[in-house]
Amino acid sequence: MIAKNMRFVSLLTLGCVVAVQATKLFDRNLAYSSPFVGYPQFSHDTRKLQARHVAYVKRQTVDNTGFDDEHYPTFYGADFSNAPFIWSGGINFTHSVASMQGDPFDTSVLLWTRAVPIGTPDQSVPVCVSFKIFDNPNLNGKPLDSGEAFTSYDVDWTLKVEATNLKADTKYWYQFADCTNAKTVTTIGATRTLSSPNTPANLVNGGKPLTLAVFSCSRFQDGYFNAYGVAAHNTSADVFVHLGDYIYESLGNGAAIGRKVLGRELATIFDYRQRLGQYRTDVSPTSLINHRDDHEVADQAWKAGTADSNDTMVGCAFSPSGACFTDRKLAAVRAYHEWIPIRQVDVDDKLRIWRNFQIGKLLDLTMLDTRNYDRDITDLYYNTDINSIADFQNRSLMGAEQESWFYNTLSQSQSRGAVWRIVGQQIVFTQLDEQGEFDVDAWDGYRANRNRILDHIQNNRISNTVILSGDSHANWVSDLAHPNDTSYDPVTGKGSLAVEFAGTAVTSSSSFGAHIAPLAADAISQIIVTDPLNSDLQWSEGSYRGFFTLTLDPHTATATYYAMRNISNPNLDAFASAVFTVKAGANKLTRPVAGGSVAAGILKASPSVLPTGV
Ligand SMILES: *[C@@H]1O[C@H](CO)[C@@H](O)[C@H](O)[C@H]1NC(C)=O
Ligand SMILES: *[C@@H]1O[C@H](CO)[C@@H](O)[C@H](O)[C@H]1NC(C)=O
Ligand SMILES: *[C@@H]1O[C@H](CO)[C@@H](O)[C@H](O)[C@H]1NC(C)=O
Ligand SMILES: *[C@@H]1O[C@H](CO)[C@@H](O)[C@H](O)[C@H]1NC(C)=O
Ligand SMILES: *[C@@H]1O[C@H](CO)[C@@H](O)[C@H](O)[C@H]1NC(C)=O
Ligand SMILES: *[C@@H]1O[C@H](CO)[C@@H](O)[C@H](O)[C@H]1NC(C)=O
Fold first, then answer.
1. Nearest CA to ligand 6 atom 4
2. Assuming Cys at both sites, which of 41, 239, 284, 548 could form a disulfide with 98, CB separation 3.0 to 4.6 Å?
3. Domain, as residue range, for 482
4. Is 394 in the pocket of ligand 3 (CB under 6 A)?
5. What distance in angstroms lies between residue 95's CA and the mean position of ligand 1's atoms?
6. Of 575, 613, 561, 563, nearest to 214 (Cα)?
7. Which of 144, 162, 192 is the last residue before a domain boundary?
8. Does 281 lie in the same domain as 318?
9. pTM, to two decimals
10. Is ligand 5 within 6 A of the CB of residue 526?
11. Is the CB of residue 259 less than 8 Å from the CB of residue 570?
C-alpha cells in the first residue's frame, strides 16, 4: 500500500538521481510500453510521465501564486493545497468482471484490468492499482507476488502487470485493488501457469491431458459470444487460444439483437479503444493466448494497406478523421496491446506477435502472424490478379524473417523432443476449391510459401504437426499433403504430412451465406468435400457458429467441434458436432475419420447427409 504523499515527497528531494527508479510504478504497467519502448508512435516515455507527475507534485508543495500553466486550465489559479499526489477519489474497475489473464509462462502470467477514476481528476494525477496473487481461491496466507502500478488516461486506464515467481503448472487466484482504498477491489480472477519446458510429456498438466479451446472471428453485431461461455462452463479447457478477428472494425447492424456497436468504422486510437471496451462487456475468454487477424486493424489487411485504406490520397478518404493506413495500423496495434494481455516478445520489432510456447515435452504452441506482419499483397476486391501471382516464389505470407524463424522453431521443437507441434495461425492452410474459387486471401494466394512449409516438414521428417486455423467462418478438417500430390491417398491418409483443424466463427456469419440452415449448408459441403481438388479435405460444416477444443496427451490429439444452437441471445446451449483423433507418429487423421459419423456437416468418407444436431 502506498503511504499517500510520503513516497513522492521523498522522491522529490532526491530529484533526478532516482529517475530510473522513480518510473517504477509506471513501468510496472506494461500498457505504457504498448507494444514497446523507444518508438513514440507505439509507446509512452514513462520518464516524461513521471516528470509530469513530479511537476504536478511540485505545484502542491510550492506557493502557487504566479503559477502559469496553460495545460491545466481547470486548476489555474486554484488552491492546490489539498490536491492528491495520486488519485484518491475512487476507482471504477469498469471491466472488473472481465479482468483477464494471458500469455502464461511456467513462472509468470500477465494480469489485466482497467481502473477509471471516478470524477474528473487532473490529467497528471496517476491512478494507483495494487495486485496480489495467491495459491488459493480465498486469498488466504501470503501472496506469491504482489505490487502496485500506475495507470492514466494515456493508456485508456488499462493496467497490464506481470505476476512473477510463480510455480510451474499451478492454479492461482488474483485480485486488484485501489491503492488508496483497500475496500475497492475487482472480482477474484483465476489463472494458471504452464508446465516448464523440460517437464516430461506424461507429467504436463499434472499428468492429465491438456486441452486448448480454439476460437476465431467474434463479430459483436452478429451475435452473443456464447462460445466463450460454453468453453468455460461445459469443457475442461485449460487454455483459450484466439486466432484473431477478436474485434471487428466495421459497424454492421446488431440492433435487432441488442448488439449495436458504438462509434464508427475504426480509424483512430479512440475508435479502437472504444470498440475493444465494448466487446469486453460480453463474456471474455480467460487464460488467453491471443492473436491478430485482419479485422483487429481492418478488412483484408496486408503489409501496406487494407481493402479500404492505404497511404494514398484516396486511401485516406474512407475515414471521417482522414486517417491513412499507417496511422490506422499504429492506432489499432497500440490499443490492442493496451487491452489484451499479450507479451511483447521482441522490443526491437514493433509488429512482432509471432511467438512460441514450450509446454513441457508435450507440445510447442507456435503462434504465427500470417496477416499484419509482412504479408505481400492480397485480394483487395478491386484488384483481381492474385490468382495469377499466387505461385510466385518471391511472394510471402509471413515475411522472410518470420518464415526462417518458423522453420527453425519446428526443427528445434522436434529436436528438443516435444511430442506435438501445434501451430496457431489465422487463415485456412489446405488447398480449398470452393465451387470454382480459391480464397486467395488464405494460403491459396501464397502457394510458394505454403510449399516451403510442407517441404520443410517433409525434408526434415518433422512429425506431429497440427495446424489450427480460423478466419473462414466455417469448419474444415484436413490431412495435409502437397496440393494435387497424387501420392496422397484420401481414403487411407497415406502420404499425409500433417493435419489441419480449421474452426468456424464465434459469431461472424457463415461464408456459405448468413444464417444458412444445416441442410442447405450440407448441400454445399457435399460439393466441396467430393471435389477432386480438395483431396485432403475430410470434413466440412458451414451452418453452425462455435469453436473447437484440442486435447493433447503423449499418444493422441483429439479435436472436438462444438456448435452453438442460438447466438441471438446469451445462452450455453451447444452440442458436439464432430470428434477427430490423430495418433502420435501418424501425421494423418485416424480412420474412419471422425469415427465414421458426425452430428453436423459432411464427411468425405461417407458423403451422405446425416441427421444433424437440431
Ligand atoms: C463504472 O463503470 C461502469 C461501466 O462503464 C458504468 O456502467 C458505471 O456507471 C460506472 N460507475 C461509476 C460510479 O462511475
Ligand atoms: C488505395 O485504396 C483505394 C481504395 O480505398 C484504391 O481505390 C486505390 O487503388 C488504392 N491505391 C493503391 C496504390 O493501392
Ligand atoms: C517476382 O517473381 C515474378 C515471377 O518470377 C517476377 O515476374 C517478378 O518480377 C518478381 N518480383 C520481384 C519484386 O522480384
Ligand atoms: C492444383 O491443380 C488445380 C487444377 O489444375 C490448379 O488450379 C491449382 O492451382 C493446383 N494447385 C497448386 C497448389 O498448384
Ligand atoms: C434464437 O433466439 C431468438 C430469441 O433471442 C429467437 O427469436 C429465435 O427463434 C431463436 N432461434 C432458434 C433457431 O431457435
Ligand atoms: C453448460 O453448463 C451450464 C452451467 O453449468 C448448463 O446450464 C448448460 O446446460 C450446459 N450446456 C450443455 C450444452 O451441456
1. 233
2. 284
3. 201-603
4. yes
5. 9
6. 561
7. 192
8. yes
9. 0.92
10. no
11. no
